[in-house]
Amino acid sequence: MNAQELVQKHKLLECIQCGTCTGSCPVSRKAGLNIRRYMREVAITGKVVLHPSNELWSCTTCATCEVRCPKELSPYDFLIDIRSIAVEEGNIATTLRDALESVFKNGNPWGRIRSKRTEWMEGLNVKHFSKGAELLYFVGCTPAYDPRVQEVAKSLVKCFENAGVNFGVLGEEENCCGSEVYGVGEKGLFEFLVEENKNLFNKYNVTRMVTSCPHSFNTFKNRYGETSFEVMHHSQLLANLIDENKFSFAKELNKTVIYHDPCYLGKQNGVYDEPRKVLESIPGVKLLEFDRSRERSLCCEGGGGRMWIDIPGERLAEIRVKDAAEAGAEIIATACPFCLLTLEDAVKTTGLEEKIHVKDIAEILAQAL
After folding, report:
1. pLDDT in tens, 323-360
2. Distance, CA of 163 to CA of 157 (rounded, Å)
3. Which fold has domain 3-88?
């Protein structure tokens, strides 16, 4: 894609240079990313110059710039296209390159073999979707492979069973959704994944799907074009089940919980109330709010490939954890595997392990069942 195509696609000449995008960007000061200037350079000079690595790869694709842009432009999508140019030229960090290679070879970015994708299911009575299931649980790469996030998948299974949900999984056939592949600009690999996954879903006649990852939810909903299935995030499904009085609670938790809005769930898809409904329904939970919540929520720095590349400086997740501790929370609740991992790591680096814990809403709900 050349500069003129970028100008037209992203309507760069409509940019009024107000600086709202750069001013609202959570990593602009940390990484020196000035997305306003970058857009202007391309529009005025008609050339694409790749900025320093920390700037180009610091963007978390949180969409705050898009949410706040008065001209309804999407600066972060512009930056993804710039990344595509960098990827084509081979100008990409080794860790990101390895993650992309693993997606192509193994169907996941974590460097794990496909046969290990179902390890999290050991000891559970989880059936394949083809065995008469009505709802597909699309587990996702991180819940399937990461030992910590596997606990979220297990908790969600417990919630489904308690509510009598007829669900199934695709097991080793499940593939990467492609969210982070798209976010780092590898559009060719992303289109390959879209075709592979659509064929797989059509093979099993999938019409309803739930995923515990906002990145998968967003990608299936907004990046796959026309599909034959409806996709929900697990917070939406759990909230619906609560409305239908499907859960049988066995105990009170008596915990003070503060909810962190994942960017891909909140800013990008407007899902704010459902996770809170889940938490508020749990006996004994006192729900707090961050000062920066909902559309003002502070990004954890996990999106846009940032799980595979580190940018120097204080991590936003550390700021988030300190804010939670100051508010008096015992548990930071979230609804995204990347948020869970970055926030939990920040609890350790800030030395607050004895004071605060990080859990997915499904884990908290499962504790009360």
Report:
1. 999 999 999 999 999 999 999 999 999 999 999 999 99
2. 10
3. Fumarate Reductase Iron-sulfur Protein; Chain B, domain 2 (1.10.1060)
